[in-house]
Design brief:
About 35% of the residues lie in helices and about 20% in strands. It has 9 helices and 9 strands. Strands 5-4-3-6-7-9-8 form a 7-stranded mixed β-sheet, with helices on both faces. A two-stranded antiparallel ribbon has the order 1-2. Helix 7 runs parallel beside helix 9. The chain is globular. The protein starts with a strand and ends in a 7-residue tail after the last strand.
Length: about 270
């Protein structure tokens, strides 16, 4: 289990006793912590599917504070930055959000289990005032609550406006089983008004397990016992809508690597809009 600690005013979490998370050769990162992830799944493949004015459409009413976003499993931050630029309606050459998004301000908290990737993200971020990065095992409830509560309290908020969970669900599922996947989805649903999620299809589970076997390692602990399987976009939609009080708003289409991007809305947070 991880434990919370404070770094630059932010609560973070070291995992596995503070040891470096292993990155195996041949692209078989057991937690999805690939060091060059954006090379084979470029951010543009996702953001091009999203309307640039999405946040203005979802939050048309004036706000006294910024819109708050949570990016779970941000890796080294390339997608976080691309999402920020795109949804803030910033051109590539601009580094100031002052006149973007019809006057709305967006702040992102981005977290990942790999401290090395988070350090890279911090060093390369062009928006240090708007995007914060923290090392966090999202399944460590005590560290998670410490970090998220600390961040939200800075803005006098109890929930995020939008949460991004892009190609993360499979890694939680493989490492924590069916119950872990349900816990993750339930947690995210309780923390945000809107959830933008990109589930990996089942063929990716088989490919991840195959990569480990090729390296002479055993399967993921839970791979053979998963009963939530098959059409994962459909199964995750079912969990979110039937068990987590969310409704499916729309599917923005599929990436070139065959993953749907789905937007859900919390039924319980309607009064916050």
């Amino acid at each position: 289990q991880g434990y919370p600690f404070e770094l630059n005013g932010m609560y973070c979490c070291k995992t596995h006793g503070g040891a470096e998370l292993p990155v195996l050769p041949g692209g078989a990162a057991p937690f999805g912590n690939f060091p060059d992830y954006s090379r084979f799944h470029p951010p543009e493949g996702r953001v091009r599917l999203l309307p640039a004015a999405l946040l203005s459409e979802l939050f048309p009413n004036p706000r006294t504070g910024p819109l708050l976003g949570l990016d779970v499993g941000c890796n080294s931050g390339e997608l976080s930055i691309a999402l920020y630029r795109h949804l803030s309606e910033l051109q590539e050459s601009k580094i100031s959000p002052e006149h973007s998004m019809a006057g709305k301000d967006l702040r992102l908290l981005c977290c990942d289990i790999d401290a090395g990737l988070i350090e890279r993200a911090k060093q390369c971020s062009p928006f240090p005032g708007s995007i914060s990065y923290a090392t966090l095992d999202i399944m460590d409830s005590s560290a998670r609550e410490a970090l998220l509560s600390c961040y939200l309290s800075r803005f006098g908020r109890s929930t995020f406006d939008i949460c991004f969970c892009m190609s993360v669900t499979m890694w939680i599922h493989l490492n924590h089983g069916d119950s872990g996947l349900v816990k993750l989805l339930s947690c995210l649903a309780s923390k945000c008004i809107y959830l933008l999620i990109e589930p990996q299809p089942w063929k990716c589970y088989r490919a991840a397990a195959r990569r480990l076997r090729k390296l002479g390692r055993s399967d993921f602990d839970h791979f053979r016992s998963l009963t939530i399987n098959g059409n994962m976009a459909e199964k995750i939609t079912q969990i979110l809508t039937e068990d987590c009080a969310m409704e499916l708003v729309c599917c923005f289409g599929s990436t070139s690597w065959d993953r749907n991007i789905l937007l859900f809305k919390s039924k319980a947070a309607q009064h916050l809009l």
